[in-house]
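Quick one: structure tokens for this chain, please?
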Amino acid sequence: MRTQRTGGHHVAEELAAELGMHWAHEAAGIPRGVKPVKRQWWLDFEEPIDLHDTGDTGVALLSRLPLKDVTRIDLPWQECQWRPRLAIAATITVGTQDIRIFNAHVDPHAAVDGQLAQLEAIAALTEKTTLPAIVLGDFNTLSKQKCIETREFLEAHGFTTPFPTGTATWRTTVLKMHADWIFVRGVEIERWGVAKPLNVSDHWPIWAEVVVE
């Protein structure tokens, strides 16, 4: 959101305007002047933001349908105090059916238990709604074990996903990992895929067509 690396653009707002969509955004609230701790070498490239950049980052939802009951979800984070992690939730109405959507950006630096603690904060809120729910986003499951345990965790909470564990959604020049997921409860996914021809990011966009009864 208006960082130097985005050229001062508010990406969510401008994308929504171009696409004629509704949008909601929550800023991470990066601490100003807090120097990043030493990280794993293979994550050193991750979204560098200058210590005194007046912009911010965060998570957003874009929808052709109006978004209501928008909720910020602060996730527990310990590994990188300089980079808060959060999720955003909102409700859309399809026909006569309300659906609760949760979009998360999980900490890539955390070990498996740290990532599951962040997902637990989201799962706890899904348990409080009787609506069908969709949990999606960048879960940063950059190892086989993280993929397996993340899937098992959400399946234990009643969610399913059609994406086979190990589906490549994130890549470097040499690595391909399964970082991004879509899980549903109370609705069915009819078709899904990974838009690999799109190379505008280190992530390939993932998509799913959801059937509402």
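The mean pLDDT is 88.
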